[in-house]
Amino acid sequence: MSVLDNFGTWKDFLANRLEQAQSQGMSQQTINEVAYEVGDYLAKSVDAKNSEEAVLREIWNAASKEEQHAIASSMVKLVQNQGNTQ
């Protein structure tokens, strides 16, 4: 099963990668930029595996570059907050 098959699994995967990046000293700005690059790649190159990903792709494609950076930053915050509440 791919991490993209289930949105909860995808968020867990992102949270683990985020934790690794932070533990290796990656800055928040760099993390947000990497999140933007991943989001852009996924929107352009990977088929949505579930309804949440399909909605995110539609929002991403409708957004300006500045708004896409905000979406990526919001995804980072989503998984950061998820880790804080578990």
UniProtKB/TrEMBL annotation:
Pfam families referenced in this protein's UniProt entry, alphabetically: DUF3243
> In its UniProt entry, what is this protein called?
DUF3243 domain-containing protein
Please give the superkingdom of this protein's source: Bacteria
Q: What InterPro entries does the record tag this protein with?
A: DUF3243 (IPR021637), Uncharacterised_YmfJ (IPR024702), YmfJ/YflH_sf (IPR038292)
